[in-house]
Amino acid sequence: MNTLRNDEEPKMKKLLIVDDDEYSRSSFVSQLEDAYETEEAENGDEALTKLAEADFDVVLSDIRMPGMSGIELLDKITERHPDIRVLMISALDQVDTAVEAMRKGACDYLVKGEVVGDELGLRVDRVLEVQELKRENTRLKTELGERFSFGNMVGKTKVMDEVFELVETVAKSRSTVLINGESGTGKELIARAIHYNSPRADQPFIKLNCAALPQDLIESELFGHEKGSFTGAVKQTKGRFELADGGTLLLDEISEIEPPLQAKLLRVLQEREFERIGSGATITVDVRIVATTNRNLREEIDKGNFREDLFYRLNVIPIQMPPLRDRKGDIVQLAEHFLQKYNTENEKEIGGFNEKAIEILMAYDWPGNVRELENYIERGVVICQEPQIRENHLPLDILTGAPRTGGVDEGVSVGTTVREMEKRLILKTLEASDGNRTNAADLLGISSRTLRNKLHEYGMAGIYRKGGPASEAADA
After folding, report:
1. Helix, strand, or coil here: 400?
2. CA separation for the pair 308, 386 (Å, rounded)
């Protein structure tokens, strides 16, 4: 929707009233001209000429007119101006014709003499509201399509090029896809890209997070239920398979579904049919399945946690998402992408990252993958009040190099005292802050005075950077 400046008036909607009866036209104009910009046409030919010369939002057209009838005019408007809504005006003996007009694309009809007072304006308002909702829906679908287009995929490393090429090929098919990768690697982003670049892009994209629901609710969420089928089932509810009919269903973290329900899911994938809980009626659907998992399903099969036959049904097109630590060549590009995103959201114009911040981003192992990187860049944008994001705008765990991917941070071993760890943490934070004690204290969550006392306590009062001379200027 358009955002208006404080000094702008909302633009009046424009209506074209088509009727060969001058008295009827004048009556409609008098009822609508205060709320809308109105123009008149006395026949279909004149109406088409006006529609070709100017933009209109709604046409009110009489059905019975000499020459071109209202139905014929409707057909031409539908063909030439599909965004314009048409509201038919009928006499009492033309209601059947008006209903037929609605089947052909008219949005509503009025019966002359029966619409009085404010009702005409209310009916037009309703037509415009529906029109605006449809335009907004179209706009949102277009934005989604652009957001998940292949041109907007971020990554230049060879491994990601291979993923993008596979996704582009797979999107055109209806085959089931299994996306495997650690949490935060972008599995859902790839699933949405598959949907929005497929022939199903205009149909629903429905997601079920299998890890977020108790097991006794997942079946109902997948297949729906009838009223009274279990305690709390107060009404008939459609499941995700029904809601996704014609489109794509994302089963996120499918490894979290327990084996008894896996058998029911297998049947749906094989037969494309199921029954709601509490119903014997079979429902047939046309749904493309995309599943994701952060576990090794072959290992889960060996442990008895996952059905082998379901795995093979899902693993038609496997896509492996690499962790960010294996595609470090994409870190800077991803960071710049998220910087622009959160610049826009926060109405900022931060110009990039300084060299030290880039070094720190590149040195970190990113156990939380792309999601962790995005969260930290958002944090940096929010707190940054400078032209660039500097190292002091990054969180402490990045600055100290923790957490690492597999366990204890380097230099940490059993027997290391808390005092020694505190000393090391202060030194690392000062190094990352280029010796700026004020920034280091902020990152450590302590006051500058406390930091100064700690430095004296540990015999480091003269140190402000690794290998550098003693100086208090670093606090400036």
Report:
1. coil
2. 55
Dist CA 108 CA 99 (whole Å): 9
The Cα–Cα gap between 55 and 467 comes to 72
pLDDT tens digits for range 226-283 = 888 887 777 888 999 999 999 999 999 999 999 999 999 999 999 999 999 998 889 9
Domain 325-399 class, CATH top level: mainly alpha
The superfamily (CATH) of domain 152-320 is P-loop containing nucleotide triphosphate hydrolases (3.40.50.300)
Question: Which strand (E) or helix (H) includes residue 127?
Answer: helix 119-147
Four-way CATH pick for 14-139: 3.40.50.2300, 3.30.360.10, 3.60.21.10, 3.30.565.10: 3.40.50.2300
Q: What is the pTM of this model?
A: 0.60
The pLDDT tens digits for 195-212 are 999 999 989 999 999 988
184: left (phi over 0), alpha (psi -120 to 50) or beta: left
Cis peptide before 403 (omega within 30 of 0): yes
